[in-house]
Description:
By secondary structure, this protein is mainly beta. It is built from five helices and 39 strands. It has one domain (about 45-700). Strands 11-12-13-14-1-18-17-16-15 form a nine-stranded antiparallel sheet.
Amino acid sequence: MKLLRTSLALTLAVGTLVSLPLRPGHALAAAPRVAGSGGQSPTATTATFLRTTSPVSMTATSASARASTQSSGNVAATELGPQKPEGDRPFNPNASPPSGLSIPSVTGSAFVTPASAASRVAPNAATTILVNGFDGLSHLDQRTADNRNQFSLEPPDQALCVGGGFVLEAVNDALRVYNKGGTPASGVTSLNQFFTGTSAIIRGTTPVFGPSIGDPRCFYDSASGHFFVSVYEQTINPATGGGFGTLPTNLLVAVSQTSDPRGAYNVYQINTTNDGGKCTADRPCFPDYPQIGADANGFYINSNAFFFGNTVDVTQTFEGAQFYAFPKTLLEAPVGAAVRGAHFAINPMQEDGFTIQPAQPAPGEAGDASNGGTMYYLSSLDPNSIAGTGIDNRLAIWALSNTSALTTNPLSTSLKDTVFTSQTYAAPRAGSQQLNDGIRPLGTGLYDPTGVSTGISPTVQRTPRLDTGDDRVQQVTYAAGMLWAGLNTALTVTGGGTTSNQTGVAYFILSPSATGGTPSIVNQGLLGFLGIDAFYPSIGVNSATGAGVMTFARSGATVYPSPAYIPIDASGLASTATVPVEGNSSDDGFTGYKPYSNGTGRWGDYSQAATDSNGSVWLAQEYIAAQPCDPRANNKAGSPGCAQRTVLANWGTRITNVTPITNLPPPGGAPTPELGSGELLSTGLLVLGGLFLVRRRRARRATPGQDAPTA
């Protein structure tokens, strides 16, 4: 959960490199190690059995608890909670980025007519059938879980996994189970209660603070029928709410005992306090932005180690990426016990050693069995990303070999990285604009004309841009023997005599080498739209057919923030992308306004795609489901017209299920399904280089010390 910051078409191009100074407060340490110089050996680590959870609560939050009213008292310290810096990619003064590169470009028309279902099925082109979609968790759900003993958080950081006939969604800081039709199959459970059995905050005359938990991820192991859910954990002083930079840290992993995600889980704790360059008990590291993956043998979790000091976003020091590998079968055992694993600490000066994404296998994929079992990871480089000026054309593939030994001898595993040349990508240059509906209760001061209760300036503030993140690699999927991934990139988009600078997506389809060397690039390309931004991609693939779908967030000056997706297969992207549901309003969350930011609201920080055993793909994206509302009648969130939001935020999430189809020969020669007559076209259709528009419409906690309402 990157909580706080102080500020914020398939073509290639070349140009010039822009350098930048070291950003104050973002230090690096130690000497560089040459990437790809050979295998690294691990040190021992342990996943300590912490507790067995009770079954997930089936009780829905009461209507009275959801009717969040505004308070006139100073409750900011118990509304927005302990603060965590964002965990930016550090500037590396010893790096040698490529020269002569420029922001990649995409050419396309601004507007096109939606294609018919028949004309969309072209040779070697992927398409999809839209099966189902429903609204997932919202800020109101998150804030009112655990009898309202929660903080207000932005952004949601969506996790999604599917199996056993259920869909599990997690956000900062809550989870819920649905059946495949979208009907809730459980109540909303706070992540604090789920993992630790405690509350994030018990309010009262003397508040009691619980641990800070966030950045949820989840994965369903279709081979064994178990759900994995992970978060970071920062120990918090229960009396003061402090702890970042002074108290121990952990990664927590919950493993379901059965294939029913509503049942009990065994929770494991990985102590990360000393894991990273100069980390010690007196100078603890924090495991930021954890990501998870798996193969036939192991469960893997990676993080970026930071020392955050005692102040917010001032003394953050990157201490290197961290790898953790554990035998999957022992974590899935019905009776919890300590599990030995392997830990690899990457030198913080290594160019490719930031946000190293482990691959998640599609159902039916056992992974690469060569070299005793090989687990793959991807990372981007771009050492100038921190200032939003970076341009690069390199990726790194990481291969963890001998994973079959994790059960008996995890220290016999070995890690190798190889940097290779890819298409050009660039750090996003600016936040995404969004359509201004003119009714933003928080940003226009309608909740509190004096500004006392919310901490937001009572003057009207401009519609916030959305934070489109940096160019780190997003979710990696292993399917059909290939790695599928995307990242955010700056783009120059042209069409109809118009040029616009946007954020778009660079995608990569790679065939990894059995020796862990340079992969073959099966395909790569760019997705961009004139006047519209696309960001936070995730790709899900049917491994049996090679057909997939890529989801991404979509926003611009003429549209509200919405989810979108586009079919993909080994031949590349389809010609059109679909908006399954339009957003209903502008983002109006506290992170978009002073004093919390300079006008860029947190969004994302990531999405997720999860492939079901039937070959369909489930997609999770943030969007604004709440209708525009005016609370002046009684100055409350929850008042007529404002029932879908809280005072401080209005974000929601969307879960979409699609069946991807391809006309390419499938892996293994199995027959490829034909496009059925049931394909649904959405009300809005995005197109490479343009947008057919039908106009309808990363997590931060509010800062202690600001007056704010209980939302």
